[in-house]
Amino acid sequence: MHFPLGPGDGVGCAIVTTDGPERGDAPGEAKDGTKAVAEREREAATTTRADGRADEAIARDAELLSAQLSQMRERLFPPSAKKALRPFTSGEAAKLIGVSDGYLRQLSISGEGPQPDTGAGGRRSYTLETINALRRHLAAQHDKASPKARQYLKWREPGEHLQVIAVTNFKGGSGKTTTSAHLAQYLALEGYRTLAIDLDPQASFSALLGYQPELDLEGNDTLYGAIRYDELRRPLREILRPTYFDGLTLVPGNLELQEFEHTTPRQLAERGARDDLPFFARIGAVIEEVEADFDVVVIDCPPQLGFLTLGALCAATSVVVTVHPQMLDVASMSQFLFMTADLLAVVREAGGALGFDFLRYLVTRYEPHDGPQAQIAGFLRAQFGERVLTNAMLKSTAISDAGLTKQTLYEVGRENFTRGTYDRAMESLTAVNGEIEALIRASWGRGR
Ligand SMILES: Nc1ncnc2c1ncn2[C@@H]1O[C@H](COP(=O)(O)OP(=O)(O)OP(=O)(O)O)[C@@H](O)[C@H]1O
Ligand SMILES: [Mg+2]
Questions:
Q1: Distance 204 CA to ligand 2 centre (A)
Q2: What is the structure's pLDDT at 10?
Q3: CATH number listed for the domain at residues 163-443
Q4: What is the pLDDT of residues 172-181, one digit of tens each?
């Protein structure tokens, strides 16, 4: 499989996607890999149970793995490779803006407003930046509060509160990051000013949005920098990063986020001695610093119910719990709900504010033809009624293959897949994201 990173950058990346022995290896790598394995085995042989130095053996494995991974990344994503979003055809642009193709052509012919790029054969193409500029241009022709202006420019108005959506579940692999990334990009494409916050030390959300934590970040570049308890704390505004989606801003994540889980117990023990904001109020407080610049915040939570996740739930105005419909996952979700309820009750008693505009379960990686999965999805609906989103995210190789090269379905071209595969996945994605968008708008008292 071969995915271009984007049309503008001229960089391509290839990755083997079969399950054969070469999985993830490019030609030539087997040799390095073999060498690494031989070396590791030799090292392992010298580390016996008797010498009691398992920590050193693990550290050596970590180093080996990290070296291999960075080699692989250099090959797939040269450091200079910057992700770029493909430009849109005039038909796509018209649909995104909410005007007819003819009207958009008219604007271009008469030279009115921001102009598209014109390629060979006079074909017009629009970057997301141009589309957003056109939205602003068209909205400015109407009275600011008129329905027409708000149809073009969907930004929230005074009185409509910032919507902070926490995507969570402590079950690993339930689709949190995939959901967060596609939701954040969908909202940006629809013209909302969107802030993506990566709360997971694994940083896959950041990677999907174009940042390699090891290459692009130094210290104090994650949300931890803004919520830490010591004097190195810095304003969230300094930590924001633009992404290759116009209107989508990222607070990246990396391993340093884990520090919050370690320093919070210490801070709790010392409470009284200091007048720090409590842990559960810190994320909400720093989001408030940048509140005026955004309409929606999407937080990708780590797969654990630690202080970060609790902080995100307290900052959230809404919650999406991702569930893969399998018995074990649902059983673990019940544990998650019990524990969340208990912990949030403690937080509420300690003064944390908890009230959600909506809390919804999203069925992810769904295979409707799989009997047991369909049964479990039905069971969830029977129990939770409308709290389960009507639309489920279907399992699709288009999503998982794109994920292998750290891309979303909004980035990969349709030409990389059989049309049916791509279209089915996109349809499911649009339905899920559209349903969440409708809930956001309802929380602002707007119709669709
Ligand atoms: N709809 C889908 N179709 C196919 N594969 C999917 C789909 N959604 C997610 N996946 C794949 O499932 C895996 C896990 O998804 P994801 O990383 O989003 O889960 P997560 O809950 O964020 O995991 P973690 O708990 O480790 O953070 C990924 O490899 C992803 O590509
Ligand atoms: Mg994740």
A1: 6
A2: 31
A3: 3.40.50.300
A4: 899 999 999 9
CATH of 88-152, one of 1.20.1260.10, 3.40.50.2300, 3.90.380.10, 1.10.1660.10: 1.10.1660.10
Alpha-carbon span 396 to 255, nearest angstrom: 30
Q: Which residues line ligand 1 (CB under 6 A)?
A: 172-178, 200, 202, 204, 303, 364-365, 393, 395-396, 399-400, 403
Contacts of 309 by beta carbon, 8 Å cutoff, 6+ apart = 166, 168, 170, 199, 301, 302
**Dist. CA 86–CA 398, nearest whole Å:** 17
The angle, 0 to 180 degrees and rounded to 10, between the axes of the packed helices 279-290 and 307-315 is: 50
Q: How far apart are CA 56 and CA 99, in angstroms?
A: 63
Q: Up-side HSE of residue 417: CA atoms within 13 Å toward CB? A: 20
Are the CB atoms for 263 and 316 separated by under 8 Å? no
CA distance 279 to 308: 8
148 CA to centre of own chain = 31
For 358-408, the pLDDT digits (tens) are 999 999 999 999 999 999 999 889 988 999 999 999 999 999 988 888 889
Highest mean pLDDT among 37-41, 47-51, 263-267, 386-390: 386-390
Distances (CA, A) of 297 to 91, 164, 236, 319, 406: 29, 5, 13, 11, 21
Residue range 3-14: average pLDDT? 33
**Residue to mutate, 23, 178, 430, ligand 1, most ligand atoms under 8 Å from C-beta:** 178
Compute, in angstroms, the gap from residue 364 CA to the centroid of ligand 1: 9
Q: Which amino acid is at 363?
A: V
Distance (Å) from CA 177 to ligand 1 centroid: 7
Domain ranges of the chain: 2-76, 88-152, 163-443
Q: Closest residue (by CA) to atom 16 of ligand 1?
A: 175
**Is 50 exceeded by the pLDDT of residue 301?**
yes
